[in-house]
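Students often ask why inverse folding is considered easier than folding. One informal answer: many sequences map to the same fold, so there is more than one right answer. In these notes we will look at a single instance of the problem. The structure comes first.
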């Protein structure tokens, strides 16, 4: 009976693989996305509706998909990659994974939102914010700076995602850029001593804060809207606006070098950067539009945020040393 059960499992798994593989290879092009399906699928669906070009969407962690692209470098399967941080694009560009494509729509973007070599383009932003449970944090006690979170009154009450979320890694790299390695090393140790909880991803952070498991969370700006939409008592703060500002991580897009369908990939990039594509990212994913002509809706517009001057390439260059620093303090990072 056990052998029959095992055979049945293998048959079922084989059929599932066949179905998934068939759907991928039947599509006109393939997009790898570090942004979640609910954020990107409305865009791919709209692109298909407009052009008739079908898209197979593979989602996952940005770091994991970047590693997949490196492994597939000699025989690329993906046509387009969407990253949750620009720094990963810089790393992939240096390793020859990305093709150069300058969309006409990207001409309207400020230079800091796109690659100098044209190998990637920012499509939207997510600010690194503080969220809090309004039933656990009094309005006059809401922290206005990330550096307030080492206060003993927040002991055991703060959560953050580890560096599997590249936005966390970029955030710490940026803090080091602003304050220096010694200062931030001390700060991270103080957070640890204050019983900071390190979770696997940002979804766990906003849900944990919403459920009251934590009073405070360090996460990305769309997550406060997701929490409120889920009925949770969650407020948000764009921290350090009178000091160093609030980091905005870029979601970015690129055509893969050697992509099976480069012309279709370019058309998809053009669509994502169009007004319709940008509006979908705002409406469905609560992302910050980079083009001032796009209505930000419920999202705080870029013009209302004090954003620090730090380059994507600078954050990419600091990623490895930041990771080493964090892991030396606590391997859970």
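Output (designed amino acids):
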């Amino acid at each position: 009976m056990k052998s029959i059960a095992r055979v049945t499992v293998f048959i079922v798994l084989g059929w599932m693989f066949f179905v998934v593989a068939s759907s991928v290879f039947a599509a006109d092009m393939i997009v790898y996305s570090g942004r979640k399906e609910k954020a990107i699928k409305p865009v791919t669906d709209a692109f298909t509706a407009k052009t008739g070009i079908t898209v197979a969407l593979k989602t996952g962690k940005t770091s994991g998909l970047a590693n997949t692209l490196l492994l597939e470098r000699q025989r690329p399967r993906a046509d387009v990659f969407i990253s949750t941080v620009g720094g990963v694009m810089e790393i992939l560009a240096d390793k020859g994974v990305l093709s150069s494509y300058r969309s006409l729509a990207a001409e309207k973007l400020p230079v800091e939102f796109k690659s100098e070599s044209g190998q990637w383009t920012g499509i939207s932003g997510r600010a690194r914010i503080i969220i809090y449970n309004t039933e656990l944090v009094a309005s006059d006690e809401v922290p206005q700076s990330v550096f307030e979170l080492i206060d003993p009154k927040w002991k055991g009450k703060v959560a953050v995602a580890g560096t599997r979320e590249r936005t966390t890694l970029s955030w710490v790299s940026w803090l080091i850029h602003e304050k220096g390695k010694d200062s931030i090393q001390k700060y991270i140790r103080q957070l640890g001593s204050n019983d900071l909880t390190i979770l696997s991803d940002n979804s766990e952070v906003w849900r944990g804060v919403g459920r009251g498991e934590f009073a405070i969370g360090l996460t990305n700006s769309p997550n406060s809207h997701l929490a409120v939409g889920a009925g949770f008592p969650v407020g948000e703060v764009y921290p350090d606006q009178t000091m160093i500002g609030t980091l905005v991580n870029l979601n970015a897009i690129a055509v893969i070098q050697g992509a099976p369908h480069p012309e279709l990939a370019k058309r998809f990039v053009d669509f994502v950067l169009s007004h319709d594509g940008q509006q979908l990212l705002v409406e469905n994913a609560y992302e910050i539009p980079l083009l001032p002509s796009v209505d930000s809706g419920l999202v705080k517009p870029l013009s209302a945020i004090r954003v620090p001057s730090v380059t994507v390439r600078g954050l990419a260059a600091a990623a490895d040393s930041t990771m080493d620093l964090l892991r030396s303090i606590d391997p859970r990072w």
